[in-house]
Amino acid sequence: MSAFGAALKRELLVLWRSPAEMINPLFFFVMVISLFPLAISPKPEVLAVIAPGVLWVAALLAVMLSLDGLFRRDQESGVLELLLTAPVMAVVPVTAKLLAHWLLTGLPLVLVSPVLAHMLQLPNAVLGTVMLSLLLGTPALTIIGAIGAALTVGLNRGGILLAVLVLPLYIPVLIFGAGVIRAAAEGGAVNGILAILGALLALTASLGPLAVSAGLKISSGN
Amino acid sequence: MAFESFADFLAMGKHGFYVWSAYGISAFLIIASMVLALRGQGQVRQTLARQQRRAELDAEVNDESRT
Amino acid sequence: MLGSPRYFYTFSSSVLPWLTPIALVTLLAGLVWGLGFAPSDYQQGNSYRIIFIHVPASSGALMGYMALGVAGLVAVVWRMKMAEVMLKAIAPFGAALAAISLVTGALWGKPTWGTYWQWDARMTSMLILLFMYVGVIALQNVIRDPRQAARAAGLLAMVGVINVIIVKYSVEWVQTLHQGSTLKLFGESTINPAMKYPLLISMLGLWLLYAVNVLMRARTEVMWRERRSKWVAKLVTRPEKGEQ
């Protein structure tokens, strides 16, 4: 585990030194959400209906856009080649990188989500479910998106292509993530749906890093 | 035959528009894909033939200049 | 044996001349039977005749993506050249079939549901399948090196196959949450044999045509990849018999 710990520390340090990459997704999340009351209707009863979907679509886009440059700096500086040829399996540093990235970009979204959910007129009893759904869902989004980022790392125009590749893969997480909030708002049972989200996270967390390192190997041409 | 006349067949009950546009669009897409596949093959063949002819000409020119 | 590009080329040269007419005749026979001779449905009248292209296209699109996933696995893990070629050859016709499935489904939906589009489980899954075909094709078109492009698309297709399965269940789950009015187009497999046989025949015909399309595209790709080899050079200057 020490290799993992060292890699995690390094990644956290690197990200910490460029705070814009951390803060921008958070601002994006808040801004996109504040567009909806202005564009659709500020009426509380309308907002409460669209809130689960709005929160989740905004979180999904924020995570996806934050991933565009995930491996680019490493590739430009040559760290990526080193990482793929290192004696440790590529999966270990890749997992560390994904965890660090989620801690500094995904977790902040989870932490501000109750405030935004309240602004979107969701009842207070649901705020816990909002946080839990994002807590289980955003890491899955980070991992799935990283597969797309790994496959497009060497290409100049990553942005839109990344969206085309990754958005279809996000749909199950989106459905269950927004679905659990809706179920909670309607007073239904949430544990089963949260378990499904947990299962999706377990699936992506176990297979995702393998796919990401395979993708990086393909992109770097070996 | 499930229809009494050809006009009946074209009318498809009241649903001629839906049935025939479904088949028309399908036919268009299938034929387009087949044609594109066929054209791609022809284009690759032509490109390769052209490259080869040019390579042979280059070789001849080189031979002549050497003698 | 089929792993060798040259063997594949000669093999497909001998298969295509008879597979193509068989595919076309089978498809046309199934469609003519279905459109003109099968009895009309007692509930839907004649609009149900869209089934003879809708169901074959849907199943073909789904099978095509599964095949992409298998080819992806072989290309990424064993780096087999022919699997890479197949990744490029399978995708376009599959995407066309997914589009056909959506359009015919919408045109069937209007007289049946009263609307062209409904977010029911099958239509939604097919839409997402089309998006995933688009992703695979887009990724292949952007990466220069053909081998790298194929393997990248292969990895994406592998992930996509897992996604297809999860999407199907999650979309069905959303349906139960909404309890929308989903009118089943057909009851539980109680389809009249007089409708079933033309359906099976046109399905077989379209699948065979898919195979023809894949072989044609794969031959093009093989020829391009092997353009520096002697056998391709010979082929280009002296076309084989029965080909122009």
From TrEMBL, chain A:
<keyword id="KW-0472">Membrane</keyword>
<feature type="transmembrane region" description="Helical">
    <location>
        <begin position="193"/>
        <end position="216"/>
    </location>
</feature>
<feature type="transmembrane region" description="Helical">
    <location>
        <begin position="160"/>
        <end position="181"/>
    </location>
</feature>
<feature type="transmembrane region" description="Helical">
    <location>
        <begin position="102"/>
        <end position="120"/>
    </location>
</feature>
<comment type="function">
    <text>Required for the export of heme to the periplasm for the biogenesis of c-type cytochromes.</text>
</comment>
<comment type="similarity">
    <text>Belongs to the CcmB/CycW/HelB family.</text>
</comment>
<keyword id="KW-0812">Transmembrane</keyword>
<dbReference type="InterPro" id="IPR026031">
    <property type="entry name" value="Cyt_c_CcmB_bac"/>
</dbReference>
<keyword id="KW-0997">Cell inner membrane</keyword>
<feature type="transmembrane region" description="Helical">
    <location>
        <begin position="21"/>
        <end position="40"/>
    </location>
</feature>
<dbReference type="Pfam" id="PF03379">
    <property type="entry name" value="CcmB"/>
</dbReference>
<dbReference type="InterPro" id="IPR003544">
    <property type="entry name" value="Cyt_c_biogenesis_CcmB"/>
</dbReference>
<dbReference type="GO" id="GO:1903607">
    <property type="term" value="P:cytochrome c biosynthetic process"/>
</dbReference>
<keyword id="KW-0813">Transport</keyword>
<dbReference type="GO" id="GO:0017004">
    <property type="term" value="P:cytochrome complex assembly"/>
</dbReference>
<dbReference type="GO" id="GO:0005886">
    <property type="term" value="C:plasma membrane"/>
</dbReference>
<protein>
    <recommendedName>
        <fullName>Heme exporter protein B</fullName>
    </recommendedName>
</protein>
<feature type="transmembrane region" description="Helical">
    <location>
        <begin position="132"/>
        <end position="154"/>
    </location>
</feature>
<dbReference type="GO" id="GO:0015232">
    <property type="term" value="F:heme transmembrane transporter activity"/>
</dbReference>
<feature type="transmembrane region" description="Helical">
    <location>
        <begin position="46"/>
        <end position="67"/>
    </location>
</feature>
<keyword id="KW-0201">Cytochrome c-type biogenesis</keyword>
<keyword id="KW-1003">Cell membrane</keyword>
TrEMBL record, chain B:
<protein>
    <recommendedName>
        <fullName>Heme exporter protein D</fullName>
    </recommendedName>
</protein>
<dbReference type="InterPro" id="IPR052075">
    <property type="entry name" value="Heme_exporter_D"/>
</dbReference>
<dbReference type="GO" id="GO:1903607">
    <property type="term" value="P:cytochrome c biosynthetic process"/>
</dbReference>
<comment type="function">
    <text>Required for the export of heme to the periplasm for the biogenesis of c-type cytochromes.</text>
</comment>
<dbReference type="GO" id="GO:0005886">
    <property type="term" value="C:plasma membrane"/>
</dbReference>
<dbReference type="GO" id="GO:0017004">
    <property type="term" value="P:cytochrome complex assembly"/>
</dbReference>
<feature type="transmembrane region" description="Helical">
    <location>
        <begin position="20"/>
        <end position="38"/>
    </location>
</feature>
<keyword id="KW-0201">Cytochrome c-type biogenesis</keyword>
<keyword id="KW-0812">Transmembrane</keyword>
<keyword id="KW-0472">Membrane</keyword>
<dbReference type="InterPro" id="IPR007078">
    <property type="entry name" value="Haem_export_protD_CcmD"/>
</dbReference>
<keyword id="KW-0997">Cell inner membrane</keyword>
<dbReference type="Pfam" id="PF04995">
    <property type="entry name" value="CcmD"/>
</dbReference>
<comment type="similarity">
    <text>Belongs to the CcmD/CycX/HelD family.</text>
</comment>
<keyword id="KW-1003">Cell membrane</keyword>
<keyword id="KW-1133">Transmembrane helix</keyword>
<keyword id="KW-0813">Transport</keyword>
<dbReference type="GO" id="GO:0015886">
    <property type="term" value="P:heme transport"/>
</dbReference>
